[in-house]
């Protein structure tokens, strides 16, 4: 199994972003993967626990700043606001789906995939695309 060209390009961008801004965004060094570790985590779901933790941290930071355009409109299926929910292993996929939908302004293939399955079971290129999306969004963070 291999990543597509787009998936590999996303990995390179993710690694560069994390290494350049880990101290500013206070991301623990032990969660910053090497390029090889990132690829292995994306391709092998049994290695994706650290990847999921990293993605949860990036999402938590992104929810604070840049946030979502209209927080009152961003509700879960149960009607809860994102600010009222702790990001856990069980809520992560739903919060991530809503965040991406609200930042884009519409549902896309990533939000559809997240509504059908969990982050851990997505294909490698989709996980890389989600991480790249979060890194791109975080490039507008005030601290960056």
Properties at a glance:
mainly alpha; 54% helix; 6 helices; single chain; 144 residues
What does this structure look like?
- Keywords: Nucleus.
- It holds the Pfam family DDT.
- Residues 5-68 form the DDT domain.
- With 144 residues, this protein is an all-alpha fold.
- It has one domain.
- 54% of the residues lie in helices and 0% in strands.
- It is built from 6 helices and no strands.
- The chain has helices spanning 5-21, 35-43, 49-64, 92-104, 109-116, 124-138.
- The chain is globular and about 40 Å long.
- The N and C termini lie far apart (35 Å).
Produce the secondary structure layout.
Layout: H1 5-21, H2 35-43, H3 49-64, H4 92-104, H5 109-116, H6 124-138
> How many strands, what sense, and barrel or not for the largest sheet?
none
**Broad structural category:** mainly alpha
Q: What's the number of domains? A: 1
Number of strands: 0
User: What proportion of the residues form beta strands (DSSP E)?
Assistant: under 5%
Averaged pLDDT: 92
pLDDT < 50 runs, ≥5 residues: none
| Rg from alpha-carbon coordinates | 14 Å
Question: Roughly how many Å apart are the termini?
Answer: 35 Å
Q: Tell me the series of helices and strands, N- to C-terminal.
A: HHHHHH
How many DSSP helices? 6
Helix content: 40-55%
What coarse outline follows from CA principal-axis ratios?
globular
InterPro entries: DDT_dom, WHIM1_dom
Main location: nucleus
Protein name: DDT domain-containing protein
Subcellular location: Nucleus
